[in-house]
Design goal:
The chain is mainly α. It has a single domain, classed as Up-down Bundle (Rhopdopsin 7-helix transmembrane proteins), CATH 1.20.1070.10. Helix content is 75%, strand content 3%. It is built from 12 helices and 3 strands, in the order βαααβααααβααααα. A 3-stranded mixed β-sheet has the order 2-1-3. The termini are far apart.
Length: 314
């Protein structure tokens, strides 16, 4: 870690400038952003309410789904207010401490999202490959331990980010060319050698994301092998349909997150507006898709919601 020049104080506020080069489209870009956020909030809150109310849903899959829904709510709520205020109200200011807080929540809960995707892949593997011992292997105690490990991992690996940035001196512009306080966008404003700090952040994100993605791939490879061995073709197609939709959401998350990470490391020629737009996508699209894929397409949740709506209408 390079020596810090503490003679220069941290800035009081930063200015989030949105998506450079697309300022004339900010009002219109805000519409799909906010629409996805509304769907994410309504969908994830509905999943939490349904699982809480229906005791038959207190199974491993739905308990992990609740953890994912809470993560999605925090992640999308941490991300969207800044772009919305910037796009529609012209409010670009964000306090330095608020910026660091947002950064912590975004990076740590993105890591938790990846961890819960892995936990749900493990759940699907056990449910399909060893269904008779599913609830025995994934007992409530083990599910709780897995959830705690995912949370601790996210907090432990990304707590240093705001602490490191708090110690850095800033002598350049206060303008952040981004829609939210991303670590790499903020650290560039420091007036010391930041190569070690950038390397730490990119290494942590790359290692955690790669390990989770590989383990998820291995889980679904074993799932596919088991599905193709099922004697019932109908059961095989049903399992493939369920796992296929899950894989699509996971691919969206890891492809956009991976693009953002590798653009920081290698993609210096990628236009800033494309990089920033995709950086928003991996924070907003998975929370938007998860309630649809894991909620609407899940028969038990769908039936409970429809039954509740019919009772209220009657």
């Amino acid at each position: 870690m390079p020596p810090l020049n503490t003679s220069r104080p941290s800035p009081v506020t930063f200015l989030l400038m949105g998506i450079p080069g697309l300022e004339h489209l900010h009002v219109w870009i805000g519409i799909p952003f906010c629409s996805m956020y509304v769907v994410a909030v309504v969908g994830n809150v509905t999943i939490l309410a349904v699982v809480r109310a229906e005791r038959s849903l207190h199974e491993p899959m739905f308990l992990f789904l609740c953890m994912l829904s809470i993560t999605d709510l925090v992640l999308s709520t941490s991300t969207l207010p800044c772009p919305a205020c910037s796009f529609w109200l012209g409010a670009h200011d964000i306090a330095f401490d608020a910026c660091l807080t947002q950064m912590f929540f975004i990076h740590s809960f993105t890591t938790m999202e990846s961890g819960f995707f892995l936990a749900m892949a493990i759940d699907r593997y056990v449910a399909i490959c060893d269904p008779l011992r599913h609830t025995t292997i994934l007992s409530h105690a083990r599910i709780t331990i897995m959830g705690i490990i995912v949370v601790i991992r996210g907090v432990a690996f990304f707590s240093p980010h705001p602490i490191l940035l708090k110690q850095l001196p800033y002598c350049r512009t206060r303008i952040i060319a981004h829609t939210y306080c991303e670590f790499m966008a903020v650290v560039k404003l420091a007036c010391v050698d930041i190569r070690a700090t950038k390397s730490y952040s990119l290494s942590m994100a790359s290692i955690i994301g790669s390990c989770d993605a590989i383990l998820i791939g291995v889980s679904y490879a074993f799932i596919l092998r088991s599905v193709f061995r099922l004697p019932s073709r109908e059961a095989g197609f049903k399992a493939l349909g369920t796992c296929g939709s899950h894989v699509c959401v996971i691919l969206v998350f890891y492809s956009t997150a991976g693009f953002s990470i590798f653009t920081h490391r290698f993609g210096k020629s990628v236009p800033a507006h494309i990089h920033i737009f995709i950086a928003n996508m991996y924070l907003l699209v998975p929370p938007f898709l998860n309630p649809i894929v894991y909620g609407v397409r899940t028969k038990k949740i769908r039936e409970h919601v429809l039954r509740t709506l019919m009772i209220k209408v009657a």
